[in-house]
Amino acid sequence: MNWKKILNYTLTLGVTLLLLWVSFKGVKWSDFIEGLKSCDIRWILASMVVSILPTVFRGLRWRLQMLPINNKINRLECYDTYAFSYLVNMLLPRAGEFVRCGILAKKGKISFESSVGTMVAERSIDLLSLIILCLAMVLFSRFGGFLVDQMWLPLVNSLSYNIIWILAIIVIIGVALLIYLWKNFSRLCEKYSFWRKVKSLWDGMVEGFVTIFKMKHKWAFLIYTILIWLSYWLMSYFTILAFPEAKGMDMMDALFLMIVGSFGWAIPVQGGFGAYHFLVSMTLVPIYGIEQSKGLIFATISHESQIVTMVLCGLLSMVSLYFQLRSVKKSKEETKEVK
C-alpha cells in the first residue's frame, strides 16, 4: 500500500470511529446490553437467513450483464466474488467492487475493464432504484414530510441559489470540454502509450456498461433487482419484529427504515459502521419518539446481524474462490506443458 492508500484508509477509519463515538456518546452500556437481551433472537436469526438472499440475487443479476461478453461465466463464481467483495469492503471501503472484477479477470472469464463497466452499470441501477423508492415514499406515504423537512430542505437551504447555478454551469462546461477533447485529440494522442491505456480502459468500461442494453434476459434482470430490494425490506421488517419498542410498526415503517439504512450503507466507510448506526438511530428519535439509546439497539441488531452473515458467507466464498483459482492455475500449467 502506498501513502495515498494509507491516508485514505486512515481518513475513512477516522470518520467511522467519529460516527460511532457520536452515536454511542452518553449511552449507558448496562442499559444497552439489557436492551439487546430483550430482543427476540428468533426474528434476528430469520433476518440473518434472509440477508443471504440479496447477495445470491446480486450474483445472478451480475452474471446476466456479463453473458453477452462471455456466456461461460457460471453462477457460483459470480456469487462467490460478490460475497467476498463484501468482506473486502469491511477493510477497505469500495475496494471490494474492484476486487470482484479483478478475480473474474484473473480467471480469464472477462477483461477487468469490461467487468468494471458492468459493475458501474449495476451500481447505477441500484442508485436509480433507491431514488425511485425515495420518491415513492415522499409522494405516497406519511414519511414524505419528514424526508422533505429534515433532509432535503436543510440541504437546499445550506446552499445559495448562486452556488447551485455556478456548480451546474461548471458541470455542463466540464462535460462539454471533455467531449470536445475526446473527439478532437483522440487521434493525435494515439502515439502515446499512456493515452492508449486510458482509451483501452474507457472502451472496456463502455463495453461493460452497455451490456445492460444487450442482455437477452432483461426481464430476469428486473426481477432480480426487485427481489434484492424485497429481501432488504423483509430483513427490515424481521428486525422490527425482534425489537420490543417497535410494537405497532408495520411494513411501511420497515420500508422507510430500510431506505434510511441504505444511505448508511452507501457512505464509504468500513462496512457501514457508524454511518448506519447514526442515521437509523437519529431517524427513530423524531419519527417514533424512541430514545436514542433504544434506537441504537435497533440499529445495532439490524447492522451487526448483516455483518455476521456477510463475514460468514465471505469467508466461505473466499475458500471456494481459492480452490477455483488454483484449478485455473493448474489448468494453465497443464496447457503450457502440452504446448
How big a fraction of the residues is strand? under 5%
* Helix residue percentage: over 70%
| Number of domain modules | 1
Shape: globular
- Sheet of most strands: none
Number of helices: 15
**How would you spell out the order of helices and strands?**
HHHHHHHHHHHHHHH
Compute the gyration radius: what is it? 23 Å
Please count the beta strands (DSSP E, at least 2 residues each). 0
Quote the distance from N terminus to C terminus.
38 Å
Q: Uncertain regions: pLDDT < 50 for 5+ in a row?
A: none
> Which structural class do you get from the secondary structure elements?
mainly alpha
Average predicted local confidence, pLDDT: 79
Written account of the structure:
- The chain is mainly alpha-helical and 339 residues long.
- It is built from 15 helices and no strands.
- 31% of the residues are buried.
Structural descriptors:
339 residues, mainly alpha, 0% strand, globular
